[in-house]
Protein 1
Amino acid sequence: MKRTIKTLVAASLVGGSAATAGAYFGLVNVGADDPHLPAVYAFLSMARDRSIEVRSRDIVVPDLDNQELIRAGAGNYNAMCIGCHLAPGVAETELSQALYPAPPNLAEIGVDGNPAAAFWTIKHGIKATGMPAWGKSMADPYIWGMVAFLQQLPELDAQEYRALVASSGGHQHGGGETDMHNHENQHGTPGDDHHAGEMAGASHHDAAAADHHGGDLASADHPAGETPGASHHDAQPAAAAPKPATKTHTHADGKEHVHAH
Ligand code: HEC
């Protein structure tokens, strides 16, 4: 028995050192365009699923059939999530195609049969995957709104999806605001990075999200330095020269996009 334990300890020390040495010499390719080996992928998926299952076991799920909750969730989902997770009538985006692991298409899987797990995932995010911890900027009732909405999403067609979003009153940020366009003093800390996530959610390819900040352009209550309505392609440093009327952006595949302002 003692001998077996010694052998096991020695073997794991050798294995551990070999893995550490390999990593130190750069053998691990962290590139998002280089898929994991199947065994590594299976291990990481198992670790993620079990981690979420165990942590969401005791979460008490509220009434998810509440129409107001579903409506609020639709506006927030449309503003913050479709860039990665898509929606009915929304074409694939650069983010949805290029992230690894790939964001699941939530228009198809909804809450994936487990609303408590979806709530936990949205609130806490998933390390090193691109899935943000929305609980840093959104209170629980707003996250439940998105869970309630996601439960309905696979049943919606593009028209029903757009109608629900239009009826939602837009993006609510999640701090209990009454005036959705007044961004001032509503985030915990100055320089709060909430808007970084928002940009990712509001890709310029998504017609449904195109007018997300449309109303903001007209209002003057943005904190200084924030570019109202900026998409992730045209965020510019404050010192940049005056903006041209349009901006052309060329993709690696040679396709050109012209951004109107
Ligand atoms: C920048 C991209 C990105 C954004 C924006 C994003 N997510 Fe995710 N999300 C991901 C990725 C990637 C995963 C999968 C991670 C993995 O496979 O481990 C994920 C996983 C999830 C899951 C788990 C799905 C399942 O059943 O496996 C849910 C639920 C989810 N996201 C909801 C949301 C909601 C709601 C929003 C908006 C508030 C959002 N996400 C915004 C990238 C994103």
Protein 2
Amino acid sequence: MIKRFLLLSCLLAASGIQAQNAVVQPSAPPEVCATCHGADGNNWDPDTNGKTAGGADSPKLAGQHSDYLYKQFTEFKNGARANNPVMTGMITLLPDEDMRAVAEYFAAQKLRPAFATNTDTIALGQKIWRAGIAAKGVPACAACHGPAGKGLPAQYPALAGQFPEYIEVQLKAFRDGTRANDPADMMRDIALRMTDPEIKAISDYAAGLR
Ligand code: HEC
Ligand code: HEC
């Protein structure tokens, strides 16, 4: 944790120098983003063969739909997505005029997917993904995020291969209303009908989708 923040302050200092010298890559993100998301948006540490460089609460951005990413950038900035003070602070480092190009950059990177790890909950996860939970009015995740979790551009993000920890945090944030940037309450309506074990099962299952 401490190491991560030391590294972060070094990068912040470095990016300040970079801006002064006006060495700007129009499509690449500011260097600081790599601390948590990885330079290619995979948050993937080759030294540990894959777990995470920045912690599993920092999502993979590689291969995500660019319109969805762009929407998140604007909403971190205007406060519509305010559930995480870290990103609210970080997004000020991304100039408005670069948002579109940076969204395109991450969308074009190849996803190195995370994995499902809990064999005990795969059956429950698969059931919810494909059929929802009829008794509680939870729709199938596949209806909007696609059968293989690739999402549907532009509105519905891909979830396949995302870190299960991140998915879980987001579902809980939708459930308690701290993340409230989903159009027409789509995700809040769903998450508030789900229990912790159901959220855990679906998060692990989605991480394993390809
Ligand atoms: C200190 C770590 C850290 C840094 C540096 C950082 N982020 Fe993040 N980022 C996070 C975390 C944590 C989240 C999850 C926020 C939440 O829980 O809602 C996140 C979420 C995001 C998301 C939302 C993805 C999704 O699937 O909804 C985008 C897009 C993003 N970051 C882009 C960036 C960009 C661009 C930069 C550089 C300007 C950056 N981040 C720098 C930690 C970081
Ligand atoms: C009616 C359509 C719909 C259904 C069904 C649906 N979602 Fe979503 N979901 C969305 C939309 C739209 C968003 C994007 C919200 C935004 O714009 O920030 C989203 C976002 C998410 C996110 C945040 C992704 C990220 O990168 O931050 C997660 C996690 C998620 N959904 C999980 C699920 C799960 C699990 C299910 C099944 C229980 C499900 N969704 C069913 C529409 C849907």
